[in-house]
# Entry
Amino acid sequence: MNPQPPVNPTGTRRAQQKARTRELILEAAKERFATLGFERATIRDIAKYAGVGVGTVMSHFPDKTSLLSAALVADWAEAKAEVWSTMPPEASYREQFLHVARVFYTYYLQRPSLSRNLLRVLLFSPENSTEELRREDEEMLAQGALILQAAQQRGEIRPGLDCRLAVRGLFANYLYVLHWGLNQTQPTVEAMLELLDGLLDALIAGIGQPPGEPPA
# Structure
């Protein structure tokens, strides 16, 4: 039996304190970005709100973009955990996709001002994207492709369809509705899902007239 290495309680406490400080900074950043906007919020504002020094913030996050990225990824992780833990396994691919959308739309509408800043600065400004965000995007697309591949095996989707390409079409509709919802005065998850469901109708049915079929 190999002896276990001794636990360093000082090191453990330091690691725990570092993690708590990081969470304080992230929560402060979310509040400042939501209240002031990304451009107006400063590292000094965030440090003051978190009750730490500017140097402490910089030791965790080298700039505002990395801080905003970390805030988004941390919340995405929680939303993704909810998505997969509550996903109805026997549902159709369409129902599963709407389930994913419901969880994420709910998250974004909880803090609409922050969400607008997050999407505008990170998702729609390539120069502000980070490797971490790109990995998150690719992971979500890969998970979506797996949902479509499973549906293909069940006969819900025609054979030969490129599921990796098709899932990008689905998420393009998802992002359009997210953008639309965040620009409404009083957006609701149900209104967003209704619009997304209608867009899925058009996407799934297609918009072209079938060959040889007369116009209605």
Q: What stands out?
A: The radius of gyration is 22 Å. The chain has a mean pLDDT of 85. The domain at 10-62 is CATH 1.10.10.60 (Arc Repressor Mutant, subunit A). Residues 36 and 203 are 38 Å apart (CA to CA).
